[in-house]
Amino acid sequence: MTKKDNTIAKIHQFQRFGSILGLERMTELLKLLGNPQDELKVIHVAGTNGKGSVCRYIYSVLREAGYKAGIYISPFIESFNERIELDGRYISDDDLELYTDKVLQQVKMMTDSGQQSPTEFEVITAVAFLYFKEKGCDYVVLEVGLGGSGDSTNVCKEPLMTIITSISMDHMDRLGNTIEEIATEKAGIIKDGCPVVTSARDIRALRVIEEKAAEHKSMFFETRNIPVAIKEESLKGCKFDADVQGVIFRDIEISMTGRHQVENAVAALSALSIMEERGDIKLDRNALLRGFKSARQPGRFEAFQRKALFITDGAHNEDGARALQETVNSLFKDKKILMIVGVLADKDVRKMADQFVKITDTFIVTEPESPRRLAAEKLANILENRGADCTVIKDYQQAFDEAEKRQGEFDVVIFAGSLYLIGKIRSMLKDE
User: Fold this and answer.
1) CA torsion sign, 220 to 222 to 227 to 233?
2) Nearest by Cα to 355 from 205, 224, 168
3) What element of type H or E holds 253?
4) What is the pLDDT of residue 171?
């Protein structure tokens, strides 16, 4: 077992405690660590879809502006170290071991005194806070893991900026059965006097977020009505102009594909503009443009050119599937498309399937590497009931091999349905 494997095994021991929302354990653990999160300048980002991309845009711009920026994300795509990144580099195996051991010493103190053990996500989040603090990070872009109010990232008392992206039905077993309930949970990251930017479009979610911002006397800024002119759109990304509170930004180029990525970029742009106006950061226009262009999010409509064009996309809920469908139908009209899909059982699979069958009628159905995976036969049945032709190959490696064999019949081959699947497929595409 390598040093890294040993460290990750120590962290994974906490899986047995499950994923429990609530801040009591996290608050106690961070207190024992000296509350490193209180010494960080945090941009806190929640939402159902798009939060990872918004984080990536802001992180990239801050780095181009010369700041020592950190980013904390979940889940990872290929390597565990992806979750904690500083100044363009993932946390090293040595630092992962060092900071994990520091955190676990305090976890032992908690459990030895009879307190409840932190969960795995709480341990990882504590590692990130301590690492960023001790490395002298200028700014931390912090992605919420699940929900908002009860998420272990929600211990930062005075973030510089709160961003809430789209709100849709996902994780209903944990967050609520209505848009309003889910929005309430996400809006739980809003703090007194901290500006709130949201790219949510559902009027029910917007009402909740605005009311929560008002409760906290926080500036509320929504991006859905910002004038945006998309000038170019291709597989390589988009170029657009935007008018943020009377300031015109021209020829912003992004390298992430799809119109939904323009919405994410506008949310990031709005947050950065407000922070600059408040004096929290200093940006020059060239750094801003470089940052947006260089930002990339692995596994989000990522293309690999082979005999056919292979695309990996992390669409794993209804809104993600709709964004994928709209992007594919915009870029690949009248192209022959093969989809390889595998999903988790706790998703709204039927609504995802409604979007997938608008892309193609030809599928290879497989299973992600996760105990929560939906049986391939069940997914195939759902797709076939919508008119699809499905080949069931439960093993994702064999499904990948079959896609490679059949790629000559198609213009585009798309892998989607779960980040657990995309991470494995992306590794295989890169290796080859």
Assistant:
1) positive
2) 168
3) strand 247-254
4) 47
pLDDT digits (tens, 9 = 90+) for 94-146: 999 999 999 999 999 999 999 999 999 999 999 999 999 999 999 999 999 98
Q: How many CB atoms lie within 10 A of CB 285?
A: 9
Q: What are the structure tokens assigned to 177, written together?
A: 């059965």
Strand pairing partners for 84?
72
Cα separation, 47 vs 183, whole angstroms: 8
pLDDT, residue 345, reads: 92
Beta-bridge mates of residue 42: 140
* C-alpha to C-alpha distance for 195 and 160, rounded to whole angstroms: 7
User: How far is Cα 212 from Cα 182, in angstroms, rounded to an integer?
Assistant: 13
Cβ–Cβ under 8 Å, residues 129 and 37: yes
pLDDT of 35-51, one tens digit each?
A: 999 999 999 999 989 99
**Residue in the block written with tokens 């585009």:** 412
pTM beyond 0.90: the answer is yes
The set of residues, in sequence order, having a beta carbon less than 8 Å from that of 242 and lying 6+ positions away, is: 226, 227, 228, 229, 248, 249, 252, 266, 269
pLDDT in tens, 80-99: 999 999 999 999 999 999 99
Alpha helices in 135-178 (DSSP H): 172-175
Rounded to 5 degrees, what angle do the CA atoms 68, 249, 236 make? Answer: 75
What is the phi/psi pair of residue 418, to 5°? -165, 140
